[in-house]
Amino acid sequence: MTIENAPIEAVFDAHRRLGTVIAGLTDDQVGEPSVLPGWTRGHVLAHIANVTTAMARQAENEGTKVEPYPGGRPARDAAIEADSGRSADEHRAAIDTAVTRLAKAWDGVRDWNAPVTYRDGTLRDTAYAVWREVEIHTFDLDLAPVRWSPEFCDHVVEFLAQRVPDGVRLTLVATDDSREWTLGSGEAVEVRGELNDIARWLAGREPKGTLTGEPPVLNPWL
Prior knowledge:
By secondary structure, this protein is α+β, with helices and mostly antiparallel strands. The protein has helices at residues 8-21, 27-30, 41-60, 72-83, 88-107, 123-140, 150-159, 195-202; strands at residues 168-174, 180-183, 187-193, 212-213. A four-stranded mixed β-sheet has the order 2-1-3-4. The longest helix is centred in the N-terminal third of the chain and has 20 residues, at 41-60. It starts with 7 loop residues before the first helix and ends in a 9-residue tail after the last strand. Residues 147-217 form the MDMPI C-terminal domain. InterPro entries: DinB/YfiT-like, Maleyloyr_isom, MDMPI_C-term_domain, MDMPI_metal-binding, SCP2_sterol-bd_dom_sf.
């Protein structure tokens, strides 16, 4: 179900898939490296729980702009570090608690266009943010094969189009799908590959397959 174009059901589907992936997670696996440099799986799981809670706070305070993380970015980073050492059971419980809080907060939303502090956006934007965080970081855990839906890949390309460098007209062609995008303007560059690999590359992750063409160096993820 989508409410006013907010991907509500997609978010909870993503969390359910995450739950399946981490159902058998052990304490030893929590401390092992994730795909993200410098982060263990514990860091990734702590971040997922904390960002889900942060977006719940945005909805709970509808009509009043509050910081997603009390104390700002330093507090966010400190919480991830502190919470990364939880046991596997504690991580699962923290994520379950965060999802329950998010569901309750979203049930009370009156206007998905309400402004929020997060990226100076709207509550709808926070729903897309949770979707991105859960889908992408489930991949980062490197615990099981992860395949993103075509709809999520569409969103990744749209959201990360700003990563295309200036002076480049980038055409992305999905070889396992009918999708094709042209982003930016300037020198023509074409990149071809499977849909998930294109989305992973744009999201700064290593594609599982091969991208053909000359993929440009992307701008930072803002």
